[in-house]
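Batch manifest, entry 17 of 40.
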Amino acid sequence: MTERVMNEKVYNRIKAVLAEERKTNMWLAEKLQMSPNTVSKWCTNQMQPTIETLFRIAGVLDVEARDLLVSSRK
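Output type: structure tokens
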């Protein structure tokens, strides 16, 4: 991995939860009526959803909102 990729912060687990639920970025984009590009940026942690959107994502995936976040505890 390049140094840039190794130093990037991971704040959300949206991609992991989608994989666990066997769902795709495209499926989530359609359910939220949002751009697939936006969902892709969330999944790669290039961009973060708003708190309101995070709760919408949790609702669509039927998980707790906190399950979509990386723990800050070590």
